[in-house]
Amino acid sequence: MTDDSRVSELPADCASCKLTAVIGCYLLGAMSLYNTRTPEWKGKPLARLGVQLFAAGCFYMGAARMFNWTPFTLEQIRRRREGNN
């Protein structure tokens, strides 16, 4: 049984909070990709791949935050708050 009053108390997502998070994720991803282009990464293909995967994750988190994809969907937040993972 769910408590609808508690679920309806979710705060509205403000645009400035969302935009700050998106810009931060994109900047972190771009900085990571840019740094893998330096000569010190030339002989380390696996380490470079790891940093590039990290950058891809940052880009996904930025897009997910902007468009409310997983893990930022309202339904998932409601389930977490109710304790029903």
TrEMBL record:
Q: Which UniProt keywords apply?
A: Membrane, Transmembrane, Transmembrane helix
**TM region positions:** 15-34, 46-67
Instruction: Kindly indicate whether the keyword Membrane belongs to this entry.
Output: yes
Q: Determine the domain of life of the protein's source.
A: Eukaryota
Keyword Transmembrane helix belongs to the record: yes
Name this polypeptide is given: HIG1 domain-containing protein
Q: Please give the organism.
A: Plectus sambesii
